[in-house]
Amino acid sequence: PEMLDAAKRLMDSLHWHGVAMVEFKRRHDASFVLMEVNPRLWGSLALSIDAGVNFPLGLWWVAGGQSVSPQPRYRSGLRTRHLSSDLRWLGANLLADRKNSLLLLRSRLLSFLELGLVFLNREEWDHFQWNDPGPIIQEFAQACRSLLGSVQRQWRVRSILHHRNRIVQRAISRLNGVHRSKKATV
Fold first, then answer.
1. What's the Cα-to-Cα distance from 160 to each of 45, 156, 157, 172, 173, rounded to whole Å?
2. Which of 42, 34, 41, 44 is CA-nearest to residue 14?
3. SS3 (DSSP) at 94
4. How far is CA 40 from CA 18, 43, 70, 95, 114, in A?
């Protein structure tokens, strides 16, 4: 409540009318400090919409001179995930060196199965709606292109390293042959 009051006072003093995210950080002594004010819609907006609070629609109503209805009931405990980021992390987790104690890793099977939580209605994916699958299809295609590009780059690097190693091995073989022939003639 104190942070909400401070945010309201700050925005009122700026004569602000519109969307803004006011972010605070709580100190160890329970006081708080202002971190930033973002006068725009935020990156995790999909979570609020999936939970039942449609900020863009409310903003549209305000811009059109309509009154905004009271705070709707919203679904709490919902998690929203970003599919392409999850796929990148899944790939990194699957290929990670399990012997490296500095890496924060999860079970490969559990990480893969987590992607299915959206089908159990326990999580949502950003920009995914059953009645409009276009955005998620586009994001999935972009993630696949990115993954394919990464695999191609790794393949090229391995090919270059393999070729370089063959050249080095040939040079070493020739040098060994030169050293042997000099020893024989001495």
1. 44, 6, 5, 18, 20
2. 34
3. helix
4. 9, 9, 21, 37, 31
Structure tokens at 13: 């003093």
Segment 107-120 shows an average pLDDT of 82
Strands 123-125 and 21-26: unpaired
Of 114, 110, 128, the C-alpha closest to 86 is 114
Could you read off the pLDDT of 57-98 as tens digits, one per residue? 988 998 899 988 888 888 888 888 877 788 788 888 888 888
What's the CA gap between 115 and 110, in Å, rounded? Answer: 9
Q: Are 78 and 47 in contact (CB under 8 A)?
A: yes
CB under 8 Å to 115, separation ≥6 — which residues? 86, 90
Tokens of residue 148, six digits: 């394919």
Q: SS3 of 30, please?
A: coil
**Composition of the chain by helix, strand, coil, percent to 5:** 55, 10, 30
CA–CA dist 103, 89 (Å, integer): 12
Instruction: State the angle between helix axes of 83-95 and 134-185 in degrees (0 to 180), rounded to the nearest 10.
Output: 30
